[in-house]
User: Which sequence fits this backbone?
């Protein structure tokens, strides 16, 4: 896996990552990355964050379905309500 620099080795983790990278289905890819993350952080405890930074996020009212996870932004479900955006621009 990419984490060879820390000598982490788990065939199930590598398989989940390889399958996710090869998938063209967004939902399947997201589930596979969740599976890999679970293996890395909850099964093997190979990655233990020392802290989670506190951050504030804002978005215009016409940006819909944008969420922020613990460490990443979730853009794949984000959408812009074009009519609401046009009204706000006036």
Assistant:
């Amino acid at each position: 896996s990419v984490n060879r620099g820390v000598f982490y080795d788990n065939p199930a983790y590598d398989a989940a990552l390889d399958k996710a990278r090869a998938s063209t289905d967004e939902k399947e890819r997201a589930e596979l990355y969740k599976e890999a993350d679970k293996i890395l952080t909850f099964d093997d405890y190979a990655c233990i964050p020392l802290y989670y930074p506190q951050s504030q996020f804002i978005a215009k009212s016409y940006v819909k379905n944008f969420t922020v996870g613990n460490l990443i932004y979730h853009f794949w479900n984000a959408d812009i309500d074009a009519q609401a955006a046009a009204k706000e621009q006036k």
